Amino acid sequence: MKQIITENIPTAPSKHVAPQADHADGTRTVMRYVADLRAWLFLAMLILGFEVWSRFSFGGTFVLNPFNLQSIAIFAVAPLLLAMGQTFVIIAGGIDLSAGFVMGLAAVVAAHVINWANPIMPMPMAVLTGTIAAVMLAGVPGMVNGLLVSRLKVPPFIGTLGMFGVARGVAFLLAGGTTVPVNNSFFAGLGNGRILSVPYIVILAAIFVLLMHYVLSYTRFGQHNYAIGASAQAARRAGININSHLLRLYILSGFCAGLAGVLYAARFSAGAAQAGEPLLLDCVAAVVIGGASLFGGSGTILGTVAGAFVIAVIQYGLVFTNVAPFWQFISVGVVIIISVLIDQTQRRMSGGRISE
Amino acid sequence: MCRRAILAAANAAIISITCGLSPAPAADRKFTVALIPGLTTDTFYTTMRRGAQIAADALGVELVFQGAPDFNPVLQVPVLDAVIARKPDAILIAPTDVTQLVEPLRKADDTGIPVITVDTFIGTGMYQIGSGNADFPLSSIASDNVLGGRMAARALADAIGGEGAVFVANNKPGISTTDQREEGFKTELAAHYPKVVVLETQFNENDANKAASQLQGVLARHPELKGVFGGNHFSALGAANGVQQAGKSGAVKVVAFDAPSGVVDDIDRGLIDVAIAQHPAEIGYYGVMSAYAHLTGQSIPVSIGTGFTVINKSNVHDPSIAKYIYAD
């Protein structure tokens, strides 16, 4: 996973310049490269810092230990998948607060459907059925979010907060207030197996990330996304159907959360309604650290990948270097603030709008 | 009417029961007992509710179950207030804070509603002693979480042969039950297992993903790790997955606190070695029984301790053990 990502760094920024920046002069473009790269620089500095730290305090290596890399990659999968949808939504100027509980809902649905399908079909078919059912169902709260935001003009923060509650309640009702165990060895193997020492879920996540990167950077859908986030007015006048775009956007976010939920159920052999609850803030943080602006119009998938790894590396690294647990909160908080400060400074320097 | 409408929203269930009843108890009236859990979204409390319902059905008592979705006094107190406003005959509550729930519960006591705490407690948990500001509840019905922690320590120490490094994977600090389990765990190891080294506790905020990652982080740093105690369900689930991902199943022993239904599979597959089950159904059952005894003029014990059951591979399918697996 790390390999794939690293190879992509140099080519990443040039492809994701928002449409409104097309006519920007050279300096501004350079500033954008720096901004897009800053999450990766941050990540590199962090890894270097932990490497030095562990060599001094413990005489061992941090980053050259394949076990550490594997652990960090597994840890990052769930927040990263949630953050994929969130990146799209935030770039378009919205936010999806329901993502965490939609993930839990999908995990519970996947568990139930697979348990139901187990006796009547072969194991892999049951898993496929459960996966499709869970991801499709996760699209439903996404669709409601989209309708609320696009047709009924409910602010995303409020509309998705409502769905946060609805998805949470439905998930707990379906789960009967408990965790739903899944008994399917194929599913458990998918969640915990590996090929050439790379876990399947990490490979799946990497493929999904590349797909999302393609959609955001190389398709009309992605370009419309930037345009709407930069200025909904201008996008409308340019003939973009904003309502239908927003609808598809929130459904996409639901699908991402659904996939995260299925992988959770595979990994822990259980669906839990609260599976994604702690991940919501992590996924928003990953997007922001990755360089997206909460005001919309900027951000990249690869930046978000770096953002998710920044959080994962901090949390894992502080356990590895044996730091008292509460420093984790402080460190992640400080990193978020620093990233936003860098973002604001860069915008001011490049003459861009600071708040809109 | 307006006030009633608001309360109806908060607690629709009670209305149909108490509406129209005069405040003075009729000789043959049906008692209403409210059970307020620490949170509604935890299988421990839904199991407690099942036990309470069984007692309520047996006694012809109406049981009302209302609570908040998170274990948090800020969310629990409004639920409590709404319940008090409907004047049930008794309140069973799992208080979410030892001090913050004292005054809100005193309101119930002042209104003449007897209070019994279940699982968690207020003040010191010593009631009816005539001193302190939190001795008004009639009874505390709970498992001794310090003892549960000690049992977990013994189970883990025995599983690793009495020596090696272990750590506690826990939810977050400040929750009386999980804090006590950790305390009991460490006390027991310090007292009786001098060769067991206890590493820094890792807090995962009930996130299994984080618990798994923390297990791997500790393991990377301390390859000699022999065992982990998961202080609650998601801590244990995550730690067990971390052990599995690291390919250390069997080499790193996992002791879990609590026994929701998934734990059976986890023990079967060797992910979890030992589960310490509390008896939440028993807590609910004796909660309603005690309330009824008090309401019908009997005296009740100020403290009822419910036990634990150690579940492992050898007994997990024993029918006499199955009743301790949590379920609605």
From TrEMBL, chain A:
> From the UniProt record, which GO molecular function terms apply?
transmembrane transporter activity
Question: What InterPro entries does the database record attribute to this sequence?
Answer: ABC_transp_permease
Q: Which GO terms describe its cellular component?
A: plasma membrane
Q: Does the keyword Signal apply?
A: no
Keyword set, alphabetical order? Cell inner membrane, Cell membrane, Membrane, Transmembrane, Transmembrane helix, Transport
Transmembrane stretches, by residue range? 37-56, 68-92, 99-117, 123-144, 156-175, 195-216, 246-266, 278-295, 302-320, 326-343
Q: Where in the cell is it found?
A: Cell membrane
Q: How does it sit in the membrane?
A: Multi-pass membrane protein
Subunit structure, as described in the record: The complex is composed of two ATP-binding proteins (LsrA), two transmembrane proteins (LsrC and LsrD) and a solute-binding protein (LsrB).
Q: What does this protein do?
A: Part of the ABC transporter complex LsrABCD involved in autoinducer 2 (AI-2) import. Probably responsible for the translocation of the substrate across the membrane.
Q: Which protein, by its recorded name, is this?
A: Autoinducer 2 import system permease protein LsrD
From which source organism is this entry? Phyllobacterium myrsinacearum
UniProtKB/TrEMBL annotation, chain B:
Leader sequence segment: 1-26
Where in this chain does the record put each Periplasmic binding protein domain? 33-298
Q: Does the keyword Signal apply?
A: yes
State the Gene3D superfamilies in the record. Answer: 3.40.50.2300
What InterPro entries does UniProt report for this protein, alphabetically?
A: Peripla_BP_I, SBP_2_dom
The record ties this protein, via CDD domains, to: PBP1_ABC_sugar_binding-like
Any single Pfam family the record assigns to this protein:
Peripla_BP_4
Keywords from the UniProt entry: Signal
Q: Which domain of life is it from?
A: Bacteria
Localization (cell):
Cell envelope
UniProt entry tagged with the keyword Signal: yes
Q: Name one GO cellular component term.
A: cell envelope
Molecular-function GO term, any one = carbohydrate binding
What family does the entry list? Belongs to the bacterial solute-binding protein 2 family.
- Name it: Ribose transport system substrate-binding protein
Q: Give the source lineage, highest ranks first.
A: Bacteria, Pseudomonadati, Pseudomonadota, Alphaproteobacteria, Hyphomicrobiales
